[in-house]
Amino acid sequence: MANINLKTYYMVIKILGDFVNNKIIDKDFFNENIIDVANEENSQKIYIGRIYYIAKKHNLVSIMAQAMEKLGFESDSDIWKRWLKEKNQLIYKSVLMDVEREAIQDFFEKNNIWYMLLKGMVIRKYYPAPELREMADNDILFDNKYSKEVYEFMTARGYKSDDYNKGYHDEYLKPPAYNFEMHRQLVSSKERPKWYEYYKDVKSILINDANGKNQFYFSDNDFYVYFIVHTYKHFLNSGMGLRTVLDVYLYVSNLQEKLDFDYIEEQLKKLDAYDFEQTFRSIAFKMFGENAKEGNAAADELQDSFDAKEQDMLRESFDAKKQDKLCGSFDAKEQDKWWNSFDDKEHDMLSYIFDAGTYGNLENSVAHKMGYTKGEKKKASDKVKYIFRRLFPSMDTIEEFFPFFYKHKWAIPFLYIYRIGKMPFTRRKKVAGELREVFKK
User: Fold this and answer.
1) Does residue 170 sit in the same domain as residue 266?
2) Domain count along the chain
3) Which of 29, 189, 253, 283 is in the most buried spot, having the most CB atoms within 10 Å?
4) Are 97 and 210 contained in the same domain?
């Protein structure tokens, strides 16, 4: 793993914050702080490869490259050329997805099927340019009465779905880079019963398209509530990264005068997500807000600005000893001041965010499923129970993800044989990684 320290994260956050807030950075800033050739003797400067590593890990490749270009960064290094090429490829993918999504929306309109674009498809409007918000897929909620019709339409267009009618959404894939998640409902009935009850009749709180078509929307308030709930799910399961922090900052900062925070508080309390939102939004504005401090002194005041609750959220993987080992010659006082601006709860959340990347990581996911926190020592009996349950899913899991076998319970032994038999051929790397996490000391 690349040697990534807090100074590098601080640099990424500063560049992104200045870019989205239309601030100007003098070109000398890059000369003074970034080098394009790894050189341990010049460790006061940050190697561009470390910045690229963070951008890649957190799905910020496009916006970071655009930000650095706009703010005056220049380099002939191979890694910068590769970075720009990847940015252009991602933007091209975004264009392809936009065109394909229009065809899917046309299908919904012609067949009188109501639908709603979700998550990143809404958030991207608040980025400096929509194509700079990277998305692995497009998420669309639709009338689940038409699951079969949607499946037939998508497969006729060349898509494949290995999980059709399993769980609450179907993933459709098509070369070279098309990926759509078609949601029959917003939340799993088994995973989060309270959230499921809240959203099971979601259409009743949606707004119809102004032109009277079949496209529906959340209100600004209800979208934010849903986005926080979805983010909280990722946080609890395996983690989420800097892109989601930037999402929240851009959404709230653009709509701050329109959002009804009393209503939002009321809804989030019903969903047991209010405390999480308070800490997460605080982190977002301390990181990217227009009043964020600049220069090396920023490390002082930003760190001091995080309260105990916020620091808890950041601390999980970046404790003081680990920081000291990673930070090299970065002035410890400056680092401490930046870090101490977050409170304890923010620290824990931030560390979790830094460590997880956009979609979380396997270590967090396995620990959560076993009922442990990351790094906590696992009992042998719990390891055995976890492996048994992964090999032989519970009836609740079978009901949600394998409905045929739930309806025909006599066939369940064949499901177990099939799942175990295909592991060495289709999921070898994932299974090996999961086992490493289970037995990690």
Assistant:
1) no
2) 3
3) 283
4) yes
Pairing relationship of beta strands 178-183 and 169-174 according to DSSP bridges: antiparallel
Q: Domain range spanning residue 423? A: 363-439
| Alpha carbon 31 to its chain's center | 32
The answer as to whether 432 is a domain residue is: yes
pLDDT tens digits for the chain (441 residues)?
344 567 788 888 989 999 999 987 766 777 777 877 666 555 567 888 889 999 998 999 999 999 998 888 888 888 899 999 999 999 999 999 999 999 999 999 999 999 999 999 999 999 999 999 999 889 999 999 999 999 999 999 999 998 787 778 899 999 988 999 999 999 887 778 899 999 999 999 999 976 668 999 999 999 999 999 999 988 887 667 899 999 999 999 999 999 999 999 999 999 999 999 999 999 999 889 875 544 444 444 555 566 666 666 554 433 333 333 333 333 445 455 666 667 777 777 777 777 665 444 555 555 555 554 555 666 777 667 767 777 777 776 766 666 666 677 777 777 777 777 776 666 666 666 666 766 666
> Residue 227 falls within a domain, yes or no?
no
Residue burial 112-134, b: 16+ Cβ < 10 Å; e: rest? ebbbbbbbbbbbbebbbeebbbb
